[in-house]
Amino acid sequence: MAGEKSSALTGVALDDLIALTEEMAALVRAGVPLETGLAHVASDLAHRRGRIAAEIAQRMHAGESLIHVLKSSPESFPPAYTAVVEAGIRSGRLPAALEGLASTSRRAAELRRLTRAAIIYPLVIAFMAFGLFVASALWFQPQITQVYQSMHAPLSRINLALAEAGRYAYLWAPWIPLIALILIGTWWYRSTRAASINLGLVRITPAGRLLHYGRLATFSDMLALLIDSGAALGQSVVLAADASGDEELRGIARQYAADIERGALGTVPRDKLHALPPLLSWLLAGGGNQAALAHSLRSTAGAYRRHAARLDEWFRLYLPIVLTVCIGGTAVVVYALSMLGPWYQMLSRIAGVHS
């Protein structure tokens, strides 16, 4: 079944992944075997979610492990998602891992829903401004050209360029909104897929920082769980970094694990941990008592979650304003300049002729 094209695990939506994760967390917390519990709840879930749960249950009954099922569909279950589940299983704290994963996935879904809702209004403004710009190039600019010709004055460069663009509007005007709609539709569709929780954002942006703090919180939580279970520190750091979904952090974790294997625990240079904030760098570079390290990592994870919560509030308040100003405002300014620029130059030429 893993190789069938009709598999229910192909192209899982983000909302379905969140619902499935919450169901698995509740089942494991209640002590119900996943293969049995998912088979029973499949009929109670929505059609798509029920088929996903039923297929996972069927494959686990056939002898596949949950990790194998997830790894067989990386387009639906991102590597970071699978790594969190694997860390939960190894630490014996799968319910906590699944609950944290559901919370992180839900935040990613809410961020994308907020972005999609906030972008609609400025896009409407941008498309209206584009329509008015095309109308200006087709009808307004030729009128200004006639005024220049009646005054026997040289045409302004702006008017000449816009009038020429209007002559060939049939070649470019239909394609710009069509391409924009295709790009927006593609982004809209991809943002609803489960794999979108692993898409990267530039860290200097508020959205990038929000997801970065969420990944650091996931890393700290998973590492604390693994350390509490008695797993080796190097192996725990690598698995926790995989669970975070941060590529740079994964590379640093592997360097750290390699140093530990060479017996360099406690002497790892902090410059090898440059991708981490200072507190996490200090904790990992120092090594030390496992119980104290796990406690410190949980406190650190809480701090990162608070940072993410503050950024989430900022997004809800300011993102619609920022998008409206940046997208809608830019479109309006370009349209205004294309109208007022030639008009102002024409009035200046008329004033010069009569002075």
- Give the percentage of residues in beta strands: under 5%
Number of domains: 2
Mean pLDDT: 76
How do the helices and strands follow one another from N- to C-terminus?
A: HHHHHHHHHHHHHH
Q: What gyration radius follows from the Cα positions, in whole Å?
A: 28 Å
Gross morphology is elongated
Distance between the termini: 85 Å
Can you give the helix content as a percent range? over 70%
Number of strands: 0
List low-pLDDT spans. Answer: 1-5
By helix and strand content, what is the structural category? Answer: mainly alpha
How many helices? The count is 14
Largest sheet: none
What does this structure look like?
With 355 residues, the chain is mainly alpha-helical. The protein folds into 2 domains: 73 residues, no CATH class; 278 residues, no CATH class. Helices cover 76% and strands 0% of the residues. It contains 14 helices and no strands. The longest helix has 65 residues.
